[in-house]
Amino acid sequence: MSSVDANAAFPAPAKRSAHRGNLMRQQRFWGWVFLSPWIIGFILFTAVPIVVSFIFTFTNFSLNSSATLRFVGLDNWLKLFRDPVTLQALSVTLRFAVIAVPFNILVPLGMAALLNSKYLWGKRLWRPLYYLPYMVPAVSSIFIWQSFLNGQTGWLNRILRLIGVQSPPNWLQDEGWILVAFVLIGVWGVGNAMLTMLATMQGVPTELYEAAEVDGAGAWMKFSRITLPMISPVIFYNLVLTVIGLMQYFVVPYVITRGTGNPNNSAYFYNMHLYKTAFTFFDMGYGATLAWFVFLIAIVLTIILFVTSRSWVYYASGDTI
Amino acid sequence: MNAAFPAKNENTSPYYSVQLRRFTVKAMMTMVAITFALLYLMPFGNMALIAVKSQQQLVGSTDSPILPLSAVRFEYEGKLYDVFKVPAEDGSIREWALINKGRQSSEFIDPENVAAGLIPWEGSWRTLEPVQELEFHFENFGIAWEKLNFPLLFRNTLVIAVTGMIGTLLSSICVAYAFARFPIPGKNTLFLVLIGTIILPSQVTLIPTYAFFASIGWTGTWLPLIVPHFFANAYNVFLLRQFFLTLPRELDEAAMIDGAGPFRILLSVIIPQSWPAIISVGLFHFIFAWNDYFGPLLYLLGKPDLQPISVGVQVFNFQYGPNPELIQATSLMAMVLPLLIFVAAQKIFMRGVVITGVDK
Questions:
Q1: What is the pTM of this model?
Q2: Residue B107, by phi and psi: left (phi above 0), alpha (psi -120 to 50) or beta?
């Protein structure tokens, strides 16, 4: 994050007169005043809840029970590793992440590459058109896709039958296909990734391509040796956001399966389990444990991504953060 | 080469072939773009055509018509009869209404020539193809509007979205101003913490936050959906700060020399120059609030009178499962406003996305 060094705009004053120091103190005071909304909000809605949530994991906390609040030690954590439903929900989430991550990076990358091509007519039309589905409210887009993926009357299966697929899958009712169906629904959510990748591609200096052309590089060579390295920071940024987003995946499976996760729990995602545990059964101690566990997974994944990024993310300016 | 009359056969020269190749590549690329757009936007077509079908037109079979078709009927002596395509004796195909059904022969009437009376026809009428016509049922939108109590959902969503928008604008502008202009010790670290909250999974703060709102009696009200936005948010602060940093400091300093305090400078120097960034933050929040589903689901459970459009549409559609046409109509209605805003302000919008996504 190269733009963080805003302090550079405040060089230490060469002469420290009393007046100057006074002004500095005043400026600092006002700085804290203007910063205070975020500081208060951060403490109130982020820092304290994270800590309290961790404390909850060692209690039987519940908003609904008459039982008195008490510490239960590591019971919740031990339960988490033994509870077959939790492990099943975790495995659904991770399996989904494995198929969704490549898709959520490659699809916007392909779209951006297409829109960045100098051989394309009507760019000003395609860009908003490709971005448009991202603007559709989640609930609307879920119902639209549910109808599109309908086994009998949905257009997708009509097309598949038309091109000769004898019995196309009943996407949302088939436990073998439902996660793939969710990935398809997810392609309407790649608008931001596409725009950021496209904007970065447009910022790649044209001299690089011209130099490569002189050396006889073809289109693919230019894309893989110039474009990809040059936009790797924004790919990395989108990769991190995608992984974190998948750890919070909830609305699509919740609405499609009406909260059940059926067929046969194949769409019972981790966060549906968390939601049910904490807000249907009001077992908030265990719910907090589930939340903290996914938080730990997210931290580990983020660290892995940052460590591996050193070998493939290229920062032109030389700074790595 | 005759410059005045460039001959046809000259298009084999390098100049023409390069141009031709460019043209071909352009045409191919554009075809790819069109094909992708058609595939990508196809679910909209599926939705639009179901939203205007009637219950009778919605047949749950694989060979049901895609278009909202209905059988053409003809009224004869006070009763309605189906119209079929009938091969007449002279070899032409006529559109006649079937009056008396028979196994071997049936009697038809020609709607254009009723006076001619019943026409006998040999053959099984079951082999005949019925005549169909397009029949759009736009009344579905009216039905959905009424059943969903759309005005109420609309009002709820607007209140939540607009008050939250005011909150996030007030707070994010102040915080971005602090980061852009004031010498706060540890500012870089604080800024990294702020950006770090973007990748914080929200579940980890969820349960204590919910418990806190429940303990002060805010669950079942709009407050948990509005008040947190008065404490700034990372994306908005980032976008505004980036914008503020591009503004020349000389104007601040001139105002300061004229005796303006920090608030005065913010109000009369910074904000008037920052409308593009402020508008995009406002729009982002509005769209976010319009689309937010989890927050209202959690905090407005059992309060149908307070629910916004997202939850309202979902609850309605769970109740009206067997009415796919109403489900599609409501989905369409819920997305009209965000799409209109996007179409009207797409440049501002997409620039905002690029600033928050690329500069980090």
A1: 0.86
A2: beta
